[in-house]
Amino acid sequence: MRVFNITDKTSEQTFVCRENEYVLYAMQRTGIACIPIGCKGGGCGVCRINIIAGKVDFGPMSKAHVSDEQRKNGYALACRVKPRSHLVIECAPNLKARNK
Amino acid sequence: MKKGVMRPGHVQIRVLDMEAALKHYVDLLGLIETDSDESGRVYLKAWSEVDKFSVVLREADEPGCDFMAFKVVDEDSLIQLEKDIVEFGLTVTHLAEGDLKDCGRRIQFTSASGHCFELYTDKKYTGKWGLNEVNPEAWPRGLKGMRAVRFDHCLFYGDALAETHDLFVNVLGFYLSEQVVDPEGNRIAQFLSLSTKAHDIAFIKHEEKGKFHHASFFLESWEDILRAADLISMTDTPIDIGPTRHGLTHGKTIYFFDPSGNRTEVFAGGDYNYPDHKPVTWKTEELGKAIFYHDRVLNEKFLTVVT
Ligand code: FES
Ligand SMILES: [Fe+2]
Could you write out the DSSP letters of every residue in B84-140? Predict the structure, then answer.
């Protein structure tokens, strides 16, 4: 099984993600807390990230939080991406998903 | 039920992937698949319900709730309700009989909170699933997962709670059963009922309109809630919180997520009301206890994670 390093640029923390594992699930499993955790199903948008470097596979995620255009520009929901290489990411909360 | 609106009838939920959704709603929650239509929607019901469906799943790009519907006692009431809704200032849309399979005509309108609601009078009566109508046994065999008993209520997040309260109480004939009030006296949560149940629908104040917090299904006992929690772990299903108890309604509960991020609740017990009961009030200073009675603090997710 291949594993990849996921580095959060802001907090400079790195965790290991298995090739078949969603990034957010790996973060939670390894006890790191750099990305907020919500529904873990691509629906709520709280785990929205920007992928600064690296390749990923996408699972289904809400277009309300990541439009096709934004996805092309590297935005994603961390609970719906699996790494295909080492990744550098940063949190990119959607304003809509952040209100109380 | 003062205006003829009788009870929750169905909810249409958007999912990102139908196959994954059916694993959640059928295999885990224990609903029964009763039909599907040309547009790909799948119809489900819980075993104790007498009509053909109570949950409709629709595959879409964004999860959330399309609408929640209430069943009305008869056509005359439906006609009067439509007049009252229009007079209240809302636009009413008509959906023909058969638009949802085996369901009569429906009227649709959007509350000030940004949620779409429906009223209808007819749906095919199929009886309780797996039981004889005469001399029925206690429960049917062959139920899956959590063996959900019935679709019970939804909680929606949105603004304009006061206008929405007026719609539900003055036009649709609900009563306010429970509320959370801030120090200035503004209602930030309202639980509304048509029956002796603690709620048939609830709203919590939120900046963005039209958000879906959860659909809730009734289980019989605390033991069933613990068993639901076991199944959530066995299936690695994302959990929100629980098993615990709510302060509001005092129901015993667990929250978890479907594979598209829509929250599901199963709960047991809870308070009852008769028409001489006053609304139960919680203050925002005790909001943590009002929502999660044991932890007495809100988890961040309760306020921010919606679809
Ligand atoms: S946690 Fe909800 S979209 Fe990722
Ligand atoms: Fe609930």
Answer: HHHHHT---EEE-TTSSTTB--EEEEE-TTS-EEEEES-B-B--STTS-SSS--SS-
| CATH code for the domain in which residue A9 is found | 3.10.20.30
Chain B CB contacts of A61 under 8 Å are 16
Q: What percent of chain B has pLDDT over 90?
A: 98
State the residue range of the domain holding A12. 3-92
Query: Which residues are within 8 A (CB) of B228 and not within 5 positions of it... i.e. 6 or more apart?
Result: B146, B219, B243, B254, B266
Does residue A100 belong to any structural domain of this protein? no
A13 domain-assigned? yes
For residue B30, the 8-state DSSP code is -
Residue B249 in this model has a pLDDT that exceeds 70: yes
Domain membership of residue A78 (yes or no) is: yes
Mean pLDDT of A70-95: 95
Indicate the number of domains in chain A.
1
pLDDT in tens, B96-116: 999 999 999 999 999 999 999
Ligand that lies nearest to the alpha carbon of residue B262, given by its number in the listed order: 1
Question: What is the structure's pLDDT at A100?
Answer: 31
Q: What is the pLDDT of residues A28-79, one digit of tens each?
A: 999 999 999 999 999 999 999 999 999 999 999 999 999 999 999 999 999 9
Q: Is A64 on the interface with B (CB under 8 A)?
A: yes
Closest-lying ligand 1 atom to the alpha carbon of residue B261: 2
Find the CB nearest B261 among A36, A39, A96: A39
Longest pairwise C-alpha distance within chain A: 40
Q: Is residue A79 part of a domain?
A: yes
Catalytic residue positions of B? 153, 199, 214, 246, 255, 265
How close is the nearest chain A Cα to the Cα of B300, in Å? 9
pLDDT reported for residue A97: 45
ipTM of the complex: 0.92
